[in-house]
Amino acid sequence: MPSPDRPASPVGTLTDKELEILRLLTAGHTVKSIAVRLGRSETSINERLRDARRKTGVGSSRELARYLDAQKIWDKKIDLPTQSSATDEGLQLPKTERPTSKGTIVMLISIFAAAAGILMATADSSQGDPRPQVVQAAVPDRLPLAGTWSLDVARIPAAERPRRVTMAFRVSDNQQWTVHAEIVGPDGSRQHAESSAAADGVPVPITGNMQFADRVALRQPAPNTLVMTFTKDGAPVSTRVYTVEADGRSMKETIVWAGDTTPRMVTTYFNRLD
């Protein structure tokens, strides 16, 4: 698993106009539609996006927009409708220092409660088609994330590699999500966690013997994207975004750690078991 670095400069240096343009990108707009909406030229919009990328060190405008959106780093005066993104450039995260060792991160990344979403765009979204925060599905079991997933431990250094990390997502007819996660450490020790909740952003308790968080809030902005916000004793711990790839067999996890001016990020990968 590659070692991430911190973005070149804090996102706090972005101007209100740059934030507004990035927010529109997350809402599903293109440079052309943003220019029309704001009464500016496409060249002007592209210049603003270039300046934002230069300030933060992030290589993609849409990637930067998602990065900010995951942390809700928006000016409160900007009030735009939520839309799914029309395209997916792939969330190649800015690199950052790890808050803990790689082994510890692996142990933490597997507490899942299920369903989620804080305004993340997905590849199969359609531009200009706003989606509700909770995605309604006629047949819940057909949602891309439903099923059992296994962490791709081959991407983790052998000295820090757990034997197995699995997570199982289940969703009922009334959109109640249940997720069970289990970690089998290098020594054969087992940890597990489970939570059940609607994807409505309301925190619910986590049961089991994992201790890094005690509550999780779930949202689901699109069928193949879940976002979970973990807290411990009321303090934010991390936000985790899960995106199922187009093949339906692989899933990417993006972890944004709380408690820093420029949030720290880690990416891991899962494969479908059923």
Beta fraction of the residues? 25-35%
Question: Could you state the CATH homologous superfamily of the largest domain?
Answer: Calycin beta-barrel core domain
Identify the CATH architecture of the largest domain: Beta Barrel
Poorly predicted segments: 1-9, 74-141
The structural class is alpha+beta
Rough shape? elongated
Mean pLDDT: 75
If strands are numbered along the chain, what order do they take across the biggest sheet? 5-7-8-9-10-11-1-2-3-4-6
Specify the biggest β-sheet: 11 strands, antiparallel
- Whole-number total of structural domains: 2
CATH class of the largest domain: Mainly Beta
Helical percent range? 10-25%
CATH fold annotation of the largest domain: Lipocalin
- What is the C-alpha radius of gyration, as a whole number of Å? 18 Å
The SSE string, one letter per element, is HHHHHEEEEEEEEEEE
Q: How far apart lie the N and C ends?
A: 24 Å
Count of DSSP strands: 11
